[in-house]
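Team,

Forwarding the record for the chain on the shared tracking sheet. I've put the sequence and predicted structure together so nobody has to dig through attachments.
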Amino acid sequence: MVARQLIPLLAFLLLVPETIRAQNYSVHDTVTEYPNKGTYYHDKFEGRKCASGEIFDQNKFTAAHWSIKMGTYVMVTNRNSGLQVIVKVNDRCPKRGVFDMSRRAANAIGIRGMQPVTIRLLPDDYANRWAAQETMFDSVHSRLNPRTPAATPPPQVKPAPTPKATGSKTTYNLQLGTAATHGEMYAMLHRLPAKYRDSAEIETMDASESLCLTLGLKMTKVEARQTADRLRKSFPNVKIVAAD
């Protein structure tokens, strides 16, 4: 009789998803990557208090999880695109195996709806990287989404262009590559050395809605070739173009 009662129980346990059975996360384990389903908050939660006591903000890199300790930094990888973002857990999600992110964090790695992700807990010393990431994304976000001025300035008459002096030298910029989404553009900027980020320009291509990442350094041809060679490993499609 006991054996007959155990058969349905064993069958049930075999059907329990691995993501649910492996929910015992340790803050000391910064190596294991756990499969989860990644999604993002509905806008109705904006301004509400999180389980940690913080106020939820769609523009912060935060997330909710069933059991991960509050304040833990987590690396989230979109398994479909390979894009990554660092978030801080500050809320609870009622569904096991689901990692619920702010909309901004989800957009950074191209999450639409619900998609497969892996999560890896990070040590506390990643706090500085998390903060630096927010600063970088603030800069990029302002370039991708310029704010409309409160009042439209009066039209100004542009002076006639000054003809170029004979023998003036042509300067050059570098086109590092194109991206179809903001998330892909964030990933490209992650690969760009910090010393070049202030010179990075994000433009929309004329022939399509693709985004183009350009270094507006206005270099000589020799300098452009040298810089392109240094960046070619991270940007294999780098091109030298004449500056306007």
